[in-house]
Amino acid sequence: MIRFSRILCPTDFSEASLEAFPHAIELARLFKSEILFIYVLPVLPPAPADFGFESEVVEFVSALRKDAEERLNDLVSAHVPPDVKSRVVLAQGHAAEEILRAADENQIDLITIATHGLTGWRHLVFGSVAEKVVRLAKVPVLTVRCHDKNLGQR
Known about the structure:
Layout: E1 6-10, H1 21-31, E2 34-41, H2 54-79, E3 85-92, H3 95-105, E4 110-115, H4 120-126, H5 129-136, E5 141-145
Parallel strand pairs: 1-2, 1-4, 2-3, 4-5
Helix pairs in contact: 3-5
């Protein structure tokens, strides 16, 4: 029998990424699974050492991390019912790579991820985190197509 003990559900805090939440929650209920919600902070370029900005950059990165953690916790509190076991994971780096790393490190059985539905030149320019996750994941990936009208052509 197929068993999903741990489900990973990435978010970038967009409305589109939230469309995967109900699917992850329903599967977690069905399989009595734990959901790990992950947000990946972007990589910031290093500040030039000769300008003396090192301490400001460290403070800025710390503030970004704290804000992301608060937003992720608030998001999970607002959308995940108390009967569903969940926790949050913060990472920093390139989104697809960090999602895949978190899947490996946390022994994830299923990744549930929203696709933002980019097509044509937008897809070519911006790429797709979901597409890279689907291609490289070692576990099954459930993709949920978003219905955000502002994301371009369908």
